[in-house]
Amino acid sequence: MLIVLNSRSGKAVLRSDPRPVFAERLPAAIVHELGEEDDLDEAVASRMAGADRPSVLGVYGGDGTVSRMAGAARAYGLPLLVLPGGTFNHFAGSLGLDGVDSAIEALEAGSGREVTVVEVVADGDPPLTVLTAVSVGTYPAFIEKRERRQRFGKWLGGLMATAKELREAQPVQLARGGRRAMAWSVFVGAGRNDPGLVATVERQTADDGMLDIRIHHARGSRLQAVASLAFGKRTTAILRGLGLMPKRSDLERLMLSEFAFTVRPSAGRPSVFVHDGELEERDPAGFTLRCVAVPSALRVYAPAGAGAAPAGTFSDAH
What we know:
Layout: E1 2-5, H1 19-25, E2 30-33, H2 40-48, E3 57-61, H3 63-76, E4 80-84, H4 90-94, H5 100-109, E5 111-122, E6 128-130, E7 133-137, H6 138-147, H7 154-168, E8 172-176, E9 179-190, E10 211-217, H8 222-227, H9 233-241, E11 251-256, E12 258-264, E13 272-275, E14 278-281, E15 287-301, E16 312-313
């Protein structure tokens, strides 16, 4: 097994060093720690070209690192071991993986699932593998502001970015099939998500072959635009009770297997989108995204009877 470890993930959360656990429970695994200049795809390709080619790819990191390793696992046709090491670990949580130990237990039992992923193509670039969601509008603009304040840390930088977005948020123009609309945000989720949320980061199904699309039309206030980004059920309930969440009539939900649209940001706003927490910058004039749900695209080790869907068994367990 090859485990790629991104020690820069999850800096906002106190976590113990996972390497002693790997050494004790997975002594035959090769652990590659990503350096500042290391590229995950190159690290995997180098190991796959060697004589000791791994038969399982493991990854310790957050959602962005996990989705990149998922792309590599798909390319090489190997199962993926997700070792949660980020701040939120949305994808791992949806499969009932609450920590490194539960992931290793699933590996040892050979318990896993086939998972629907989203292939996202931006302006004809090579496709990206997405496990949770891709988004345009207010959320990517918030992430862009937070990344420019990294020196303050994720939480303080996030508060500063929120305050700035409350003052500066502007809708984006969407075009699809000859129709146009102005929207605060669009979320394209992998699989069905909690119907009460705008941000599709809590997938409820592992392999339904669907995109859950939420469009927040620009008919409310900036405050509602930012409040709609809440993904915790408790936080959302509080904001709804305070009247800060958008009206249901301002929200549109689509369930499709494919969704393509063009985005044009307002003047002076960043031309960006986010996939699994990773920010991508595009041409200031706008860009096109094509999102396709690919069923049974990835095999992931996961505990039986927990998470988004019933688990199966991998015959090639290691």
